[in-house]
Automatic annotation (TrEMBL):
Transmembrane segments: 89-108, 115-137, 157-176, 283-308, 328-349, 415-433, 454-475, 495-515, 527-544, 564-585
Protein YTP1-like C-terminal domain segment(s): 298-587
Name the UniProt record assigns to this protein: YCR061W-like protein
Chain intervals with Polar residues compositional bias: 215-226
Lineage: Eukaryota, Fungi, Dikarya, Ascomycota, Saccharomycotina
Signal peptide: 1-20
Gene: U6500C01250
Record-annotated DUF2427 domain positions: 70-172
Annotated region described as Disordered, given as residue ranges: 202-237
Glycoprotein among keywords: no
Keywords of this entry: Membrane, Signal, Transmembrane, Transmembrane helix
Amino acid sequence: MVRFVSTLSLLSCAAAFAMAHGGEDMDMDMDAHASTTAVVPVPHEPKHLHGLPILQWPTLTTAERLYWENYNTTTYFTTSEGSRAALRYHASTLLLLAFVLYPVSLALSAARSRWYLPLLFANLCVGASSITVLFLYKTSFPGDDLYPHNIYGTTSAVLLALMLVHFFAAVLAVPVSPEPLHDYHPVDAIPLDDLESTPVMVSHSARGSPSPSSNRDTLCSLSSGTNHKRGHDDDDYYDDDDADADITAIESPPLASQEVPLFHILFASAWYRALARRLSRPALAVFHLLNYSLFVYVFVDMVVGFAVGNLLGKGIRIFNLLAHWIKGGVFFILGVVSLARYCGFGAKYGWAWNRVCITAHLSHERSSNLLFRLAPAGTVTMEGIESFLIFFYGSTNVFLEHLAGSGGAWTAKDLQHVSIAFMFIGTGLCGLLTEYKLNHWRFDRARGHSHADLVAATPGYSPNPFPAFTIFWTGILMSQHAQASQTSTTIHMQWGYLLSYGSFFRLLTFLILFLVPNARGTASKPFTELITSFCLLCGGLVFMESTDQSIDAMEYRGLTPMFTFNLSVGFVSLLMAWEMILFIWKDWLVKTRKTSL
């Protein structure tokens, strides 16, 4: 009985406890069920914060959150102030000028097409209207400028002045003689003993027509055989045309006067002919000085406008912007030049990896080409030019790295950057010394056992590793350069590795040309240079994107490093295709013009 009463009391206590807490447990079960049904099933939860706008990061400190909450996204491109139509017109016409009109005019200039001056005039009109509308936009902008004391107005005015000078120099450089220009043609041949090729001895008269009796220092392009008629294959003809066009591009006016549409009335006038007789020579020098340098300046003005339009580089941040954009721009331009060399640019100097010989007649007459006249026995190679530019840049960059902290003590970061400048000085100087040591090697390798009267010769390359070595270590060092954020570090690794890959394929180019010498005067077209060009172009572009303000803009919007990397790869691929199209079109124009002569 006692045991039964005890058991009954225990059950009653348990029931009382359940009655007291049962309602709370039921509510918890209902809440858990409700929260379970509200969860959206996903295969994987995000394990990192990349890809989210930075204000959604739960790990921000108080100082970081204060910075990003006050981050201002207002720029000239996002504000509604001022004439939006004027800004859009200026931006679109400047892009049209940089990527379409002026590159097309350069192709027509190299081909000495009769449509060059009309297009150059259209180029001037578009550029002048774009810059005029820019100043109209500035007057329509109310209140204070978003970027006070910027230099974009000055650079744009300089661009307009250079375009005017370049156009009038091109007009005055047109020959007044009704006789059309002629190209270099083969007039003699001297066989080489050790090669199955024939050097094409070319000479040029004072008026530009071929003349075997008025030999000067000339270019000797080596072709596979003595058949130089128009019946040979397209590749040989393409390369020979390209070399001939490059030779006459410097020593001759851009085109013949009687061939130019819309300008024949001007060229027929007496006052123009009198003025051209006096100014044609200095005008021709100015024309060639500005023809390619103006192309570079158009892009300089465009990137300055992009920086000002997006309020980049204000205050102390100007030094970070300049450091990235100058260096990245150099690599980008180097990529453009590398692809142009593959397409035949600079073939007359052997810069298209083609074999070139400079001969001298027994009369010892001087060549009118300054570079030919001053060339050493192994000629001036692109590797030598690159070594000089590396040395020059390193020399000027020693003190530029401390500008942001001018007046203060040198920090470890300053010394780290200056050590890269020291590397540029050392490798540039080593490259110049290597060019000196390889001078006679290049001459002997290109000449072979020929008895030709050669004063200079090059096989089309110089096995000088220091330019590629410099690019390789610049990429490696910067890929290991830790930054303030993971996004910035990743982007630095991207362009650092791209530069390293490009230098690796440049060394493969040397290896290919060394093992399989080019016995012809045509461009070698090593496939490795296509990859090198891509790596330099893309690496330089990503380099320019890695500024502090660009990283801030990306992180604020939640853009990952792969976003800009993908865009850069796509843009560079399209740019390379456009550049190759222009060269192919130029060579077709040259072939068509020669056929019609």
